[in-house]
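Re: weekly structure request thread

Next one in the queue (104 aa):
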Amino acid sequence: MRCVIARFPFDLTKSGVLESMKGVKPEPIAGESVIIGRRQYPVKQVGQIITRQDRRDFSAGEVVRAMTLLGFTCRGLPQAAAAPEAALTPLQRASAMLGSPVSA
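Done, posted below.
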């Protein structure tokens, strides 16, 4: 499949990407990632290996788009952990379950 990454056309295949990434150790993931085989790689690492270009030359979105079209599973940015809920007293919890809030 023909993909444009960093303004350059590349003819990529799923088997070609699998072969390129064989034996490559995944770097720690801090943003978007792609699952290739049984491993999860940062998209910038994959883009650098398959295009042989510097990571600053292309965006993560370009690589995600290409990998998705080839049939790989891509994951977005990790979601920030939700703020923990304030601990409710047993009376408040029971009241909330019944649908009539009780003020403390």
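The chain has four helices and five strands. The longest strand covers residues 2-5.
Next request, please.
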